Amino acid sequence: MSNDAVSPEEVRHVAELARVDLADGEVDQFTRQFADILEYFETLDEVPEVDRDADLANVMRPDEARDSLDSDEALRNAAETEDGYFKGPNVS
């Protein structure tokens, strides 16, 4: 893969979207690293396809109804509760 597969402008744009400040040296480093990563993905094109149906088996156990905690017992160790529910911090 050529080194211009990912441009420094694209790296800066992605960093801006992720709200990450990058120095010029870091932009160059990430540009090279992204190009290397894309090259690894291109090697997947060389993997031959498998022309057979996989033998699938359900490995999950069947659901079984069983007793669970009642609300009071479940909330017993909670730091804060409100109206019978766990209370957590506000997320903004």
UniProtKB/TrEMBL annotation:
InterPro entries in the cross-refs: Asp/Glu-ADT_sf_sub_c, GatC
Signal peptide location: none
GO terms assigned for molecular function: asparaginyl-tRNA synthase (glutamine-hydrolyzing) activity; ATP binding; glutaminyl-tRNA synthase (glutamine-hydrolyzing) activity; transferase activity
SUPFAM superfamilies for the chain: Glu-tRNAGln amidotransferase C subunit
Pfam families in alphabetical order: GatC
EC nos: 6.3.5.-
Catalysis performed (reactions): L-aspartyl-tRNA(Asn) + L-glutamine + ATP + H2O = L-asparaginyl-tRNA(Asn) + L-glutamate + ADP + phosphate + 2 H(+); L-glutamyl-tRNA(Gln) + L-glutamine + ATP + H2O = L-glutaminyl-tRNA(Gln) + L-glutamate + ADP + phosphate + H(+)
Quaternary structure (record): Heterotrimer of A, B and C subunits.
Domain of life, per lineage: Archaea
Basic and acidic residues: bias regions: 61-75
Gene: gatC
Spans annotated as Disordered: 61-92
HAMAP family hit by this protein: GatC (MF_00122)
One of the protein's GO biological processes: regulation of translational fidelity
Assigned protein family: Belongs to the GatC family.
Alphabetical UniProt keywords: ATP-binding, Ligase, Nucleotide-binding, Protein biosynthesis, Transferase
Job of this protein: Allows the formation of correctly charged Asn-tRNA(Asn) or Gln-tRNA(Gln) through the transamidation of misacylated Asp-tRNA(Asn) or Glu-tRNA(Gln) in organisms which lack either or both of asparaginyl-tRNA or glutaminyl-tRNA synthetases. The reaction takes place in the presence of glutamine and ATP through an activated phospho-Asp-tRNA(Asn) or phospho-Glu-tRNA(Gln).
Protein name: Aspartyl/glutamyl-tRNA(Asn/Gln) amidotransferase subunit C
